Amino acid sequence: MSSKKRKSGSTTSITVGVSNACSECHRRKQKCDRKRPCGTCVSRGVVDKCCFDEDFPASNQHGLLVADRVPWPFQSDSISTELDEAKNADLGYSLGKGSNAFTSLTHILDGDDDLQAVASKHNQPAPSRTFNPKSQALITQLPCRLVVESLVTSYFSEVNWYYFLVEEYYFRDLLWRWFGDPRAGSANHLNLEELSRELRSFPAMLFQVLALAVQFLPREAPTFRLLSKNDLGLCHNYSDTGIELLGSLGGQGSAITVVQTHHLRSAWLKNLGRGVDAWHSIGNAIRSAQVIGLHQSKEIRQQGLEGTLSRVWYDEYQRRIWMNLFIWDSLIAMILGRPRTINADDCDVEPPVDCNIPKDPSITVPMTSKIGQGNAVPNTVSMNLVLHRLSQMFNQVKTLKADKPFPKDYSTIQVLHDQLTTMLDNVPVTLRHQNPDTSWDSRYPYLKQHRELVLIYANLYLMTLHRPHVAHYAESCRHAIQASITALASLDRCFALTKPEQYKSFPLSFYTVDASIFLSSIVAAHLLTESEVKARVDRVLRQALERLAIIEAYSPIAESGLAILRRCCGKLKDQCPQAYIFTISTPSTVLNPFSLQLRSSSQDFRLQQAIPTMHSAAYMHNYQPHGQQPPSLSSTGSLDTSGPCLFGSNSAEDTLSTMADVSLFNTPTDFDESYWMNLMNSIAPAPGPLMDPNIVWGEFS
What we know:
Protein name: Zn(2)-C6 fungal-type domain-containing protein
GO biological process, one term: DNA-templated transcription
Keywords: DNA-binding, Metal-binding, Nucleus, Transcription, Transcription regulation
Shape: globular
Number of strands: 2
Number of helices: 23
Domain Zn(2)-C6 fungal-type: 21-52
Subcellular location: Nucleus
């Protein structure tokens, strides 16, 4: 048996044996007659998987293989000619059933080769067989394989658990194929053309994974020792380079990796506070997903047991991707008040199965446990299924126009409120807030935070539901206050579980500011009469100020929100000084939170760098679960930067390498002071007498 060396980097080589049998017969350990296609593959109906070692592509000049143990699908001259002719023939037809003249004939001419060629020619833009010079130059900006694999591992351990946007099994399969790693098995879930498309845009997705990994990279991570001083801007460079690469490839959204490139880009942008750019990016992801039909159910053709199961699981993976896009589309619409991209009437795909993707999909049948079942094993999709139901409820609010003031029938608001309460009673036992099953927490540490995230998002939905009605209905005012307090308390528990390098997370800062300003604005309009409620409001606002004072060094959202929240708390202190006992340094003139206006000078937004004096050792200890020292206070009550920094080092180089993205604050955030002030003005009460405080607080629970 002959062998050949394949380079995976500048200093590493891998020796891979070459089989005389085709790849499929070699995998199944069957006899092969070496015909093209071989008799065995013909009899099994898998001729598209029949390929030989001499069909494998040579490594390119950068030491990266486009595929391993799969043929480059455009090596055949006949296929190449047909695809070259199709380059400019993309007319934009949908592949959905009955959507145009081509697809309406499929039930008549099913399997007809001429029809398939026409449909492919007019619906699928064909990629070039090689990377153009610009794409090659961009790909060379990937770090060495050692750093790539280290950052990928960091991404899956430190980042992906937030929403499980990427399925590790399928990502690593593409990564191995890209590097020519022999661990990549047979791609039963993809045909040759599909695999080629995925691999072609895979480096763009890889750039986004690396960008998010660096954004949350722990200081103690060994990868830091591999990064040079020139790599301090990796977070921005990687993400931007990935998008530039996607553009240079001429991608038309015809691959899963294109969809996920845009989705991961949106996550990265949100953490920087670039909400509008994130909205555009998630829109690109959705449009790319619609091009390949992720929003529609698919019929899976039988391809033998292994092939069929592999296809079933890959379809399951695609449904998870679409579900996550639906969730993000709804959440960003809630945050920014912008139109949703997805029209639910266009979608008929079923939600995914409540289970994990197996290690070997070709031998596993999808099964799920009933929601709420006590012995259900936690999985990577359970929380997203809950968020998906929340997103569906938000879409129902929009459909019923319940997000507009003065509804025709206010009882609709209460019905929607009760639906959420019922839904929370039926979440999986590992995710519910009251009396949860915590027996899996040690094995799946992210469960504690997922439990809080479910509660946070549920109460954010309630805040969104009641926000337009707080000025006119005591019930909505009461529900909004309750939801804000619950969300802030949950955010505080979530923060205590968060590592310092994860303080850049968008939910931690944005939802703290959003709920705090919402709560303080409502309370400022209605005189508090209940001492118990006063104490609860006092506690959650105090904790919010504490958190934001710590996070503002990491998050531009926290920095801008903290300044406005201090003004709000100053207003509350003036209104009811005995109820709000924390000390806050505010400008000499405290603005009315319901009539905040932009000033001409940015200096008017600069507040004294003071934070609440309630920095008890026990309280701050809850914010340092990983052995970090809390920031000290100067005699003026401001953060003392002359002592040890948060990571125990005063070195500027160490600080920059810890933050990893030194240009974080050089990028303007969409959630600046003007954004928060406009939000406060949007919930201002209408002119006229305010509601009786006894009605607002009398039935508060």
